[in-house]
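Quick one, tokens below:
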């Protein structure tokens, strides 16, 4: 289960920077849709090739926050070692954020503090998890089939069919001037918005 969750998150992380940000009032929905489909295909290929650094850069801060929270809740050796090695403001902010998120559960956790998001060891932690799941990510990403893409004022949702014939949805947003994966849904909830 954890392997599948990481594979989906890793897959979600590979959005390419090829897309330009869009203003839904100025951009043609069809042009945005086509850009998203093109970027998604590039992303899928990068995931299948195991480019962990690129995956990390191409996910939103919100998805990074969700991923860190899930790992902390699991509490395996990698995340415990990473947390234990943090010091100063990053460690304090992480612990305060984690406690707040546990006490105030929501569907989506609050964004990590900047001190944690900019911590140089965070991308290395991602790479370690990615390396553990590289075969699963390659299997899943090499078999994804795009079904459709939907544009709305918040971004683009790409509906795919996975290797097992089930639908998944990847939601893309523009953050810091580039398209980034912001959310992933699998199963019955993976339908058009």
């Amino acid at each position: 289960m954890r392997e599948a969750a990481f594979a989906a998150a890793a897959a979600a992380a590979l959005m390419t920077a090829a897309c330009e940000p869009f203003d839904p009032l100025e951009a043609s929905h069809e042009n945005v849709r086509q850009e998203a489909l093109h970027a998604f295909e590039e992303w899928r290929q990068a995931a299948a090739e195991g480019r962990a650094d690129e995956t990390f850069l191409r996910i939103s801060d919100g998805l990074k926050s969700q991923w860190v929270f899930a790992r902390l809740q699991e509490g395996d050796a990698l995340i415990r070692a990473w947390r234990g090695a943090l010091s100063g403001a990053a460690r304090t902010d992480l612990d305060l954020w984690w406690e707040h998120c546990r006490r105030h559960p929501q569907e989506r956790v609050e964004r990590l503090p900047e001190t944690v998001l900019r911590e140089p060891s965070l991308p290395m932690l991602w790479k370690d998890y990615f390396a553990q799941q590289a075969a699963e990510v390659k299997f899943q990403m090499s078999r994804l089939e795009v079904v459709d893409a939907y544009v709305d004022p918040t971004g683009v949702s790409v509906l795919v069919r996975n290797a097992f014939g089930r639908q998944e949805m990847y939601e893309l947003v523009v953050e810091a001037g580039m398209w980034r994966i912001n959310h992933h849904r699998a199963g019955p909830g993976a339908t058009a918005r």
